[in-house]
Structure formats: structure tokens, C-alpha cells
Amino acid sequence: MDTKQKELNIATIKDVLRQYLMDKGFRNTPERYTILEEIYNMEHHFNVDDLYLLMMQKKYHVSKATIYNTIEIFLDAGLIRKHQFGEKTLSTSSYEKSYFDKQHDHLVIYKEDSDKIIEEIIEFCDPRIQGIKDSIEKAFGVSIDTHSLYFYGHKKSEN
Questions:
Q1: Cβ count near 120 (within 10 Å)
Q2: What is the pTM of this model?
Q3: 2, 25, 46, 86: which is deepest, by most CB within 10 A?
């Protein structure tokens, strides 16, 4: 993504956050926008500890509690998505930006000889999943707004 598009995207999500805060009667603090911008500059999944360390490295003065509270606001506003990949960390949830991203699914690959240490997370989109979603909607008379699908495994040995 080019710099100009990234700047437009950041401006858009800040507008979404501004409107959300106003609608909910929440305070409009600069820390929330700084945290949001840092998240939208990331190219990978993150957890609260990752985000907190990044903010400290960049000399931002935010507490971990502020980050936790802000994450909840972003989730409710639809700006980020929460995942539970089964990783063994102090903060077991992972997050990713979601406002511009289409629905996708995840393949979680664990390190050899481990069922909790993640080696890699691969995002994928398979059109057959959309067909399954459409079938479920028709069969049950519902409208599915979102879904999550995770596959977990290990890389095959090259013997």
C-alpha cells in the first residue's frame, strides 16, 4: 500500500473512532488515536503485551490498563478483531486491524514438539467457505454477519 493510501486509511479510521466516541459519550483522548494509529501501522497480529512494548519503545506514556481499555473500545467500534489462537502468553488474546480487511480465516502452525508455541499464522481466503456460509444462511433462515475459522497443526516432516 502506498503512503498516500495509508494516510487516507488512517484518517478514515480516526474519523470512525471520533464518531464512535461521540455517539457513546466517551472522552476523545489523544492516546486513543495514537494507539489506533500504531495498530494500523502494524502488518501482523499483536497482543496487548506487544502493543505495550511498542508504545514504550516509542516513548509514549500509556499504561497497560489504558491499552486494555482502549482495545475494548476498538473491538466494539469494529476497528479491530479479536482472536484466541491458543498461544501461551500472559495476555492470551491476539488482535488484528479489521476496518478495511475482508473476512479471512487462519491456519495456526505450532512449533515442532509443541501444542502451544506458535511458529506461524497464515491468513487465507477460500471461496468455498463463502458457499458454506450461504448454505447455512439458507438452511437456517439466518443472516451471518461474520465468522471465524481456525485450523491448527504442525509442519510435516521432510523424511
A1: 10
A2: 0.74
A3: 46
